[in-house]
Amino acid sequence: MTLKFLGDIRPADVQAVSAAVTEATSSHAVFELHGLGIGVFPHIRNPRVFWAGIGGDVQALQSLQTSVENCLSRLGFEKERRPFKGHLTFGRSKGKIESRRLMDAMADWGEFSTRSFSVKHVTFFQSDLQSGGAIYTRLATLPLVAAKPIFSDLAERSRFSILE
């Protein structure tokens, strides 16, 4: 899942980008998502990207993406004009696909769903486009804050008051 595509950046800017994404992730807790449904971009008649939609705590995902977008904009990266649509890309097409076969497959798999998975970190990747596909190199892994329970049991809760 891509939170922000940066395009070409200078090697000298990698540290600054990593620091900005660290700032963006520092206030976000681990959250749960799951795959939900399938689709294509840009259109069923000319599919180029095949994706699975996202269910679960999509508000946490949106908040994380907004934080990444805001922190990177301070470094001069232009904010995306289109609204963020969280999805998991699972394939790309370079050739023509028969629309009827694709629509049948999407009807068969339209209710697709996966088990939940925890989003625990954001990874900053470099991608090098090759004739056989992209080669990805991890530049940094930036953890989200682990969710910590305030109280471990009912007895401990009974000794404190929480005021909001």
Descriptive overview:
The chain is of the alpha+beta class and 164 residues long. The protein has a single domain, classed as Cyclic phosphodiesterase (Cyclic Phosphodiesterase, Chain: A), CATH 3.90.1140.10. The protein has helices at residues 14-25, 58-73, 99-109, 154-157, and strands at residues 31-43, 46-56, 88-92, 113-119, 121-130, 133-143. Strands 3-2-1-4 form a four-stranded antiparallel β-sheet. A hairpin with a 2-residue loop joins β1 and β2. α1 (14-25) runs antiparallel to α2.
Topology summary:
Blueprint (H helix, E strand, L loop, with lengths): L13 H12 L5 E13 L2 E11 L1 H16 L14 E5 L6 H11 L3 E7 L1 E10 L2 E11 L10 H4 L7
Antiparallel strand pairs: 1-2, 1-4, 2-3, 5-6
Helix pairs in contact: 1-2
Summarize this structure as a short list of keywords or feature phrases.
164 residues, Cyclic Phosphodiesterase, Chain: A, 35% strand, two-stranded antiparallel sheet, alpha+beta, 6 strands, 4-stranded antiparallel beta sheet, disordered C terminus, 4 helices
Average predicted confidence as pLDDT? 85
Distance between the termini: 36 Å
Note the run of SSEs as H and E.
HEEHEHEEEH
Beta-strand fraction estimate: 25-35%
* Unreliable runs: 148-164
Might you state the CATH topology name? Answer: Cyclic Phosphodiesterase, Chain: A
Radius of gyration: 20 Å
Strands in their spatial order, largest beta sheet: 3-2-1-4
Structural class: alpha+beta
The tally of strands reads 6
**CATH architecture designation:** Alpha-Beta Complex
User: What is the C-level CATH assignment?
Assistant: Alpha Beta
Q: In the residues, how many domains can be counted?
A: 1
What would the principal axes of the Cα set say about the shape?
globular
Q: Roughly what percent helix?
A: 25-40%
Report on the biggest sheet. 4 strands, antiparallel
CATH level-4 homologous superfamily: Cyclic phosphodiesterase
Number of helices: 4
